[in-house]
């Protein structure tokens, strides 16, 4: 899996496109769209929501949880 280096100069658009492609790859278009719609712009604090949801989980664990949910057709 390609990762974005912390010190790299990556534009916001590049981040958005990479994120969207990753969501589609893992969740499909419908799942990716549902995921993004769950977080409305300008309301709440999605950063805190993600932190609470994924507290104590490393990236590998999050990935496994997504794959499990996909396999069980939860997403």
Describe this structure in words.
- The protein is mainly alpha-helical.
- The protein has one domain.
- The protein contains three helices and no strands.
- The model has no long low-confidence stretch (mean pLDDT 80).
Nutshell version of this structure?
This protein is mainly alpha-helical and 75 residues long.
Features:
globular; 63% helix; 3 helices; 0% strand; mainly alpha; single chain; 75 residues
Domain module tally: 1
Question: Any low-confidence stretches, pLDDT <50, length ≥5?
Answer: none
Work out the strand percent. Answer: under 5%
**Helix-strand string:** HHH
Number of DSSP strand runs: 0
* Sheet with most strands: none
The Rg value, from CA coordinates, equals 13 Å
Tally the helices: 3
Overall SS class: mainly alpha
Shape: globular
Helix and strand topology:
Blueprint: H1 12-37, H2 46-53, H3 59-71
């Amino acid at each position: 899996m390609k990762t974005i280096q912390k010190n790299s100069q990556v534009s916001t658009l590049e981040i958005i496109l990479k994120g969207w492609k990753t969501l589609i790859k893992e969740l499909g278009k419908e799942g990716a769209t549902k995921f993004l719609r769950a977080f409305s712009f300008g309301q709440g604090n999605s950063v805190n929501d993600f932190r609470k949801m994924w507290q104590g989980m490393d990236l590998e664990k999050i990935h496994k949880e997504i794959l499990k949910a996909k396999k069980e057709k939860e997403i």
